[in-house]
Design goal:
The structure holds three protein chains of three kinds.
Chain A lengths: L26 E6 L6 H12 L5 E7 L4 H8 L8 E5 L4 H7 L2 H14 L4 E5 L16 E7 L6 H4 L2 H5 L2 E5 L4 H4 L3 H12 L4 E3 L9 H16 L6
Parallel strand pairs in A: 1-4, 1-5, 2-3, 2-4, 5-6, 6-7
Chain B lengths: L3 E8 L7 E3 L5 E5 L7 E6 L10 E8 L4 E6 L3 E3 L8 E9 L4 E5 L3 E3 L4 E10 L4 E10 L8 E10 L2 E10 L18 E8 L11 E3 L3 E5 L4 E8 L2 H15 L3
Parallel strand pairs in B: 1-5, 4-6, 5-8, 6-9, 7-10, 8-11, 9-12, 10-12, 11-13
Antiparallel strand pairs in B: 1-2, 3-4, 12-15, 13-14, 15-18, 16-17, 17-18
Chain C lengths: L3 H7 L14 H6 L6 H27 L4 H10 L4 H21 L3 H9 L6 H11 L4 H24 L3 H28 L10 H12 L8
Helix pairs in contact in C: 3-4, 3-7, 3-8, 3-9, 5-7, 7-8, 8-9
Classes of the chains: A alpha/beta, B mainly beta, C mainly alpha.
Pfam families (chain A): cobW
InterPro entries (chain A): CobW/HypB/UreG_nucleotide-bd (IPR003495), P-loop_NTPase (IPR027417), UreG (IPR004400)
Subunit structure (chain A): Homodimer. UreD, UreF and UreG form a complex that acts as a GTP-hydrolysis-dependent molecular chaperone, activating the urease apoprotein by helping to assemble the nickel containing metallocenter of UreC. The UreE protein probably delivers the nickel.
């Protein structure tokens, strides 16, 4: 081969905590959960809540290309160059768990083009209760379910509900109408999750995403408190 | 008997044709150019000749600063020969500095039972311009196609710009009529426009209806690729593209 | 090096991004050119003998250690569709990421540094096979297998095609994959100028149409 100038570092090969230039990369938080539970609405609310104090960007993994990205663009929660859509070939869970290469391309491209970034939210395509993010892609993950999906979801468990770093139970305002028992959901979640936190949200008010935003800020503080990476 | 013939054309900047050699069935003739500053050569009648076993070639040199248009008086018809060998048809085109070549032959028709290998080698100076059209019709009206292999290699300043090989008909490897290649279409063609001006302003890729696409190449060039149910429909796509992309 | 390295590289679970690409099958399904197993087989057969052969030649040449700049330029000249050039470079970058994590070494590092925006996927595939200790035949086999495997998997998802039928299509095409890999390898041994350039007009045309769709499941 005519390329013989030795070993070089180019691009991170996996979830290294630093970028090629040695600076700390953005914290990556994944948001997963079943179709219609309010993942995209949560991402939009988080962006509105955090965009004035943090440099952030979003990667969407749509089932159909760009649907969620288009929603975020329409809502104008971030400038378009901060939103990237990844195509998933009809398998959204594959793109966030088994073959994360397209998502890693997208997060690195965002850091290269609009960086430096504090936070990148990676939204999964709507999937079932088994979809979780690879640790090679995100540093922490949020699993979003809603009360309308049935108050037995926390009891049923599954990797998302059981192991996500934060479980969000969304649309609490609908609980009386769909006959969901929030107390029971909280007890079942605690049983499945032990000490892992649960947030109950209703995004009907602008402040509804507050508990999730607070949790994100805590994670970010812990991330930046880590010793600076050495190149 | 099978034929071997090589015709030669050379055009100079002053509008003269220092070389204009006929050979066998290949007879290039000077004809009246429509555009001022251009020299025109028409390959007369005899292009309808490649029979099985024939080896025909046309060598064309457009010298520095010259502007040459080459066309043909009739379609080229590949026919079966008396010998069971493929016919070969080679085009070697060289275009020099600040020179331009418009290579606009009529359609190539691959008649049932024929077997033709076409090879087009184009060497362009970095400052040269080229308009090249290829139209292939698989079978005369209502007949199954012959076998046709066609390789087009274009180099610009010594580097590859476009390299494509098409293979159709009963002698081609399988799948040529499947959903990836022709899917039942019986005419296919390309229009290539190379112009250093595209370096600054490349064309934007876009579909041309259901059956064609305009694509910028990785160099200063635009390619139109089209398939069509028949020769007429193909011409419509490529003629419209020719009008849009080149002042011909 | 072991033969099993080839299986690791050729495995559909190898995390190099291929799962999001249909190899033109999504457009062919929409146009009604693939409706069933027979349509899939004709599609894959044509793709194998055209862009599959071309990709296999490039992969074999890269596995032999031919100049990657020359091979990358040859790939550009053989890929008139900008949508397909972009997909190929993107997949090349994704494969490079997986390859460097799997078979780290100076050869792949140098190739990655030389093509920060990604080399064409078959070139990276050949270099990966080389890094994994496999030769040009294996690189060409991988390229040929992907050529048919991608559309087959995509068609199962797009049409709900019976997966046994789709797999049977791949098995029936196995001798063709062998033939394509052998031709590609023989050409690669002759040098870059001898590499195949077989092309498929409909794949080029529909790739541009597909890239312009507002809604699609696959990246290409």
């Amino acid at each position: 081969m005519h390329l013989d100038h030795g070993h070089t570092h180019h691009g991170s090969v996996s979830a290294d905590a630093h970028r090629p230039d040695g600076t700390r990369r953005a914290l990556r938080i994944g948001l997963g959960g079943p179709v219609g539970s309010g993942k995209t609405a949560t991402v939009a609310a988080l962006c509105r809540h955090l965009r004035d104090t943090l440099s952030l960007a979003v990667v969407t993994n749509d089932i159909y290309t760009r649907e969620d990205a288009e929603f975020l663009l329409r809502e104008a929660v971030l400038p378009p160059e901060r939103i990237q859509a990844v195509e998933t070939g009809a398998c959204p869970h594959t793109a966030i768990r088994d073959d994360i290469s397209a998502n890693l391309e997208a997060v690195e491209e965002l850091e290269d083009t609009v960086g430096p970034l504090d936070l990148i939210l990676v939204e999964s395509g709507g999937d079932n209760l088994t979809a979780t993010f690879s640790r090679g892609l995100v540093d922490a993950q949020i699993f979003v379910i809603d009360v309308a999906g049935g108050d037995d979801i926390p009891r049923k468990g599954g990797p998302g509900v059981t192991t996500a770093d934060l479980l969000v139970v969304n649309k609490t305002d609908l609980a009386p109408y769909v006959g969901s028992d929030l107390g029971r959901m909280a007890r079942d979640a605690a049983e499945q999750r032990g000490d892992l936190p649960v947030a109950f949200t209703s995004l009907r008010s602008a402040e509804g995403v507050g508990p999730v935003a607070d949790w994100v800020r805590e994670r970010l503080a812990a991330w930046t408190a880590l010793p600076a990476p050495t190149a | 008997m099978s034929l071997r013939a090589t015709a030669r054309i050379a055009a100079a900047a002053d509008g003269s044709l220092p070389v204009l050699e006929s050979d066998g069935p290949l007879a290039p003739r000077r004809t009246r150019a429509a555009a001022p500053g251009w020299t025109r050569v028409t390959v007369v009648g005899a292009m309808s000749a490649p029979l099985g076993g024939d080896r025909l070639a046309i060598e064309t040199e457009v010298r520095d600063g010259a502007r040459l248009r080459v066309d043909s008086a009739a379609a080229t018809l590949a026919l079966p020969g008396r010998v069971p060998h493929p016919a070969a048809y080679e085009l070697r085109l060289r275009v020099g500095a600040y020179a331009a070549l418009h290579w606009l032959p009529e359609q190539l028709v691959s008649a049932h039972g024929s077997d033709l290998r076409v090879r087009t080698d184009v060497d362009l100076d970095a400052t040269a311009r080229l308009v090249l059209r290829e139209e292939q019709v698989l079978g005369r009206h209502g007949e199954p196609p012959g076998t046709l292999f066609s390789r087009l290699t274009v180099r610009r300043a010594g580097r590859p710009l476009l390299d494509q090989e098409l293979a159709y008909g009963p002698g081609a490897p399988g799948g040529w009529d499947g959903g990836a290649v022709l899917a039942g279409h019986r005419a296919t063609g390309q229009l290539l426009v190379v112009d250093p001006a595209f370096e600054e302003e490349p064309v934007a890729a876009r579909p041309l209806g259901e059956h064609g696409a305009l694509t910028p190449l990785a160099g200063p060039a635009a390619l139109v690729t089209a398939v069509a149910p028949d020769a007429l429909a193909l011409s419509r796509i490529l003629d419209a593209a020719l009008t849009e992309l080149a002042d011909v | 090096m072991t033969r099993s390295a080839l299986l690791v590289l050729a495995d559909g679970r190898f995390p190099a991004g291929g799962h999001a690409h249909s190899g033109g099958a999504e457009a062919a399904v929409k146009a009604g050119r693939i409706r069933d197993a027979a349509g899939l087989e004709a599609f894959c057969l044509g793709r194998l003998h055209t862009t599959g052969l071309t990709a296999a030649g490039l992969a074999a040449a890269a596995a032999l250690g031919h100049d990657p700049y020359e091979l990358d330029a040859a790939a550009d000249a053989r890929t008139p569709s900008p949508a397909l050039r972009a997909a190929s470079r993107r997949l090349g970058r994704q494969l490079m990421r997986a390859a460097r994590a799997t078979w780290p070494g100076p050869g792949l590092d140098a190739l990655a540094a030389a093509f920060p925006r990604g080399a064409h996927q078959p070139v990276v595939l050949g270099a990966t096979a080389r890094a994994a200790g496999r030769g040009p035949e294996d690189a060409a086999h991988c390229a040929a297998y992907e050529t048919a495997g991608g559309p087959a998997t995509a068609t199962v998802r797009l049409l709900g095609l019976d997966p046994y039928q789709a797999t049977a299509v791949l098995a029936r095409l196995a001798p063709v994959m062998d033939e394509v890999a052998a031709r590609a390898t023989a050409a690669a041994r002759e040098g870059v100028d001898a590499l195949p350039a077989a092309s498929a007009p409909l794949l080029d045309i529909t790739a541009e149409q597909h890239a312009a769709w507002p809604v699609r499941l696959f990246a290409s």
